[in-house]
Amino acid sequence: MFIGFGYDRHPLVEGRKLVLAGVEIDSPVGSLGHSDGDVLSHAIIDALLGAAGLGDIGTWFPETEEYKDANSLELLKKTMDMIEERGFKVINVDSTVVLSGVRLSTYRDRILENLKSVLKTPHVNVKFKSGNTLGFEGEGRGISAYAVCLVEEKECTKST
């Protein structure tokens, strides 16, 4: 079994959508990123890649024209394909999104539904924090997400 950790953060700006795990959030500001700025999907991607020893999101999905405005839930699906091809399966994912001024709890079920489907496990948790007026998240200038995951190898390939 292997543990992975992921983290992402983006500034919030007018004129962009706010997307978490493929769910569009009703918000006057959105996440500024090269792709759709989905910090939750990005943090989970990094956690999965870390657990599988595959580097980070920038290694696989660089800031090139190919990934400009990309749907990050689709990038998460590609990441799942990569780790499954290498013999891993997801046991669980726990994550936290930090954002002030936008109530996210009403979106939890849809976010979890998307993540459970893509990650192919029922063991997914998403928590929401306000930042308590601290940092750029608490001041409403940005959004961040943290994720940890546990993966296991489907088949043991040890050599003696």
TrEMBL record:
Q: Which family does it belong to?
A: Belongs to the IspF family.
Question: Where is the site Transition state stabilizer?
Answer: 34, 130
NCBIfam families recorded: ispF
Q: Which UniProt keywords apply?
A: Isoprene biosynthesis, Lyase, Metal-binding
Pathway recorded for this protein: Isoprenoid biosynthesis; isopentenyl diphosphate biosynthesis via DXP pathway; isopentenyl diphosphate from 1-deoxy-D-xylulose 5-phosphate: step 4/6
Give the protein's recorded name: 2-C-methyl-D-erythritol 2,4-cyclodiphosphate synthase
* GO BP annotations, alphabetical order: isopentenyl diphosphate biosynthetic process, methylerythritol 4-phosphate pathway; terpenoid biosynthetic process
Task: Give the Enzyme Commission number.
Answer: 4.6.1.12
Per its record, the protein catalyses: 4-CDP-2-C-methyl-D-erythritol 2-phosphate = 2-C-methyl-D-erythritol 2,4-cyclic diphosphate + CMP
State the organism's lineage.
Answer: Bacteria, Thermotogati, Thermotogota, Thermotogae, Thermotogales
Q: Which cofactors are reported in the record for this sequence?
A: a divalent metal cation
Positions that bind a divalent metal cation: 8, 10, 42
Q: Which GO terms describe its molecular function?
A: 2-C-methyl-D-erythritol 2,4-cyclodiphosphate synthase activity; metal ion binding
